[in-house]
Design brief:
This protein has 7 helices and 7 strands. The chain is an alpha+beta fold and 232 residues long. A hairpin with a 5-residue loop joins strand 3 and strand 4. The longest helix is centred in the middle third of the chain and has 14 residues.
């Protein structure tokens, strides 16, 4: 059953989707354990996700680092859609009376059509000989929030269609710089990777313990032990 706190946001999703237009994807995510997924979405063609799709890597990082304790929302961070389009993403934390997040209201803006129009307009306005002197329109998206803080990590959001793909994406990103085969890592190296996966929010996903154990060719009990040590 969907939380009473989130119920009023469900019609808001479609309202914002129709008001802002097809370049804006509006997403409502339920963070309660029985759901932990998208429960309403408008203009879903932008990311290709549907109701029931899992949280993103960015959402998991925000929750793992408890950014909701100091921020009501985070705006204008970078998202990358399945088709490669760069999105401008924003997330609002929906909290209960105790300040615990129960949901996320997200807006992902795909400005690719406007970028194409901008480039065509610049080509018409400026002759080719002068185009080199025209500053390019930057696609760099800043990560900002309701409070300016250097402690906020830079986040790039990726949109996965299912939980296994999401876990694999987080794991691959975390281990990308590791040249040593995973089954040859020292205990301290393995523990450090587990800590990084923990910080990225991987272990908030159902089945993450057994997934990571399989990747490291070890038992689930070993992963539990590492997490116990990491959590003090």
């Amino acid at each position: 059953m969907i939380s009473n706190i989130l119920q009023p946001y469900i019609p808001l999703v479609e309202f914002l989707g129709q008001t802002l237009g097809p370049d804006y994807e509006i997403v409502l995510q339920d963070l309660t354990p029985e759901h932990n997924c998208i429960i309403a979405i408008a203009n879903s063609s932008i990311s290709g996700r549907t109701v029931g799709s899992p949280l993103t890597n960015a959402a998991l990082q925000m929750l793992s680092r408890k950014l909701y304790e100091s921020h009501d929302f985070l705006v204008n961070y970078k998202g990358i859609a399945e088709n490669g389009h760069v999105l401008r993403s924003s997330t609002m934390f929906i909290k209960d009376s105790s300040g615990i997040p129960v949901g996320l209201l997200c807006i992902n803006f795909d400005d690719s059509r406007f970028m194409e129009l901008h480039e065509k307009l610049m080509a018409v306005i400026h002759p080719a000989s002068a185009s080199a002197n025209v500053p390019a329109f930057s696609k760099t998206l800043s990560f900002s929030s309701s409070e300016t803080s250097d402690s906020i990590p830079e986040i790039t959001e990726h949109f996965s269609m299912d939980i296994h793909s999401l876990m694999q994406k987080i794991f691959d990103d975390t281990t990308a710089s590791i040249s040593t085969p995973l089954d040859r890592l020292t205990q301290s190296e393995r523990k450090e990777l587990i800590r990084q996966l923990h910080d990225r929010g991987l272990f908030q996903l159902k089945g993450a313990i057994s997934f990571v154990a399989g990747q490291f060719s070890c038992s689930s009990a070993t992963i539990y032990r590492y997490l116990s040590e990491i959590n003090g």
